[in-house]
Amino acid sequence: MPNRFTTTVKKIGAGTVPEKPLTVIIPVAGMGHRMKSYGPKCLLPANKKETILEKTISNIEREYPYCDIIVVAGFESEKVIKILPSKVRVVENHQYESTNIAESIRIGINAAANKHLLIVYGDLVFNVYSIRDITSDGPCAIVDSKERFKEDEVGVTVVDENITNFAYGLPRKWSQIAYFEGRSFDILKDLCSDKRKSKLYPFELFNIIINSGIVMKAKEPSGMLIKEIDSLKDL
Q1: pLDDT at residue 101 above 70?
Q2: pLDDT of 165-206, one tens digit each?
Q3: Where are the alpha helices (DSSP H) in 64-120?
Q4: Are 38 and 1 spatial neighbours (Cβ–Cβ below 8 Å)?
Q5: In 3D, which of 186, 153, 174 has the Cα closest to residue 218?
Q6: Inside any domain, residue 13
Q7: How many domains in the chain?
Q8: Within a domain: residue 128?
Q9: Are 188 and 205 in contact (CB under 8 A)?
Q10: 175 neighbors 156 (Cβ within 8 angstroms)
Q11: Closest CA to 177 of 197, 208, 148
Q12: Contact call for residues 69 and 57 (beta carbons, < 8 A)
């Protein structure tokens, strides 16, 4: 007699159980020219108790307790290192003045201990809902359709809930958080290490990954609150 009741087995997200650890890379190496005199943007206050970087780390640890967080520092790295918890690893991008964020991602990937990778840009202020349950369903990027990001930021084209292209000038924005695993991780690692592509930005590398046949889902978590800090007036 057939079973009248069926349930969907929920996939276990990386970082939620010890058997499936998650690597998190937070690139904070850049100077942020409009904020240079104030030091690294990630050290600006997110609230009365935490810097942007501290809040980012605490939110990640709340949602993904089994994670290895790697902070990639550069500009005034000693100030960044000083506020980091001992369990957070730090690597340095010594070429931060002449490279873009893809180099910081490359350095972080080389220090990664597994192939489940969450990239979270270091100048974001966001709540825990913004990253909730985003590692359980394959490669994805967090997107914004509610004008939380500025018009001149990188956008995405989405078809059937999958991202088909990252580019400027698109109304739906990439929220600067992305997840990779398995083959998509391998491709990203190879692209970041390819000197012929050293001038490309991360979103351009993501396009190559998509064009190689990887399905990258667009996710906009319910309850998401997120903001990029570009200047002091954004705080």
Answers
A1: yes
A2: 999 999 999 999 999 999 999 999 999 999 999 899 999 999
A3: 77-83, 101-110
A4: no
A5: 174
A6: no
A7: 1
A8: yes
A9: yes
A10: no
A11: 148
A12: yes
Report helix, strand or coil for 219. Answer: strand
Q: Is residue 157 part of a domain?
A: yes
Please give the model's pTM, rounded to 2 decimal places: 0.93
Contact 64, 15 (CB under 8 A): yes
User: How far apart (Å, rounded) are the C-alpha atoms in residues 124 and 53?
Assistant: 8
Domain assignment present for residue 16? The answer is no
CATH number of residue 117's parent domain: 3.90.550.10
DSSP letter string over the chain?
A: ---S---PPPPPPTTSSTTS-EEEEEE-----GGGGGG--GGGSBSSSS-BHHHHHHHHHHHH-SSEEEEEEE-TTHHHHHHHS-TTSEEEE-TTTTTS-HHHHHHHHHHT-SSSEEEEE-TTEEE-GGGGTT-SSSSSEEEEESSS-S-TTS-EEEEETTEEEEEETT-SSEEEEEEEEEHHHHHHHHHHHH-GGGTT--HHHHHHHHHHTT---EEE--TT--EEE--SGGG-
Give the domain extent around 43: 22-234
Task: Give residue 11's pLDDT.
Answer: 82
pLDDT digits (tens, 9 = 90+) for 33-75: 555 557 899 999 999 999 999 999 999 999 999 999 999 999 9
pLDDT of residue 39: 82
State what percent of residues in the chain have pLDDT above 70: 91
Decide: helix, strand or coil at residue 224: coil
Q: What is the pLDDT confidence band of residue 233, given thresholds at 50, 70 and 90?
A: low
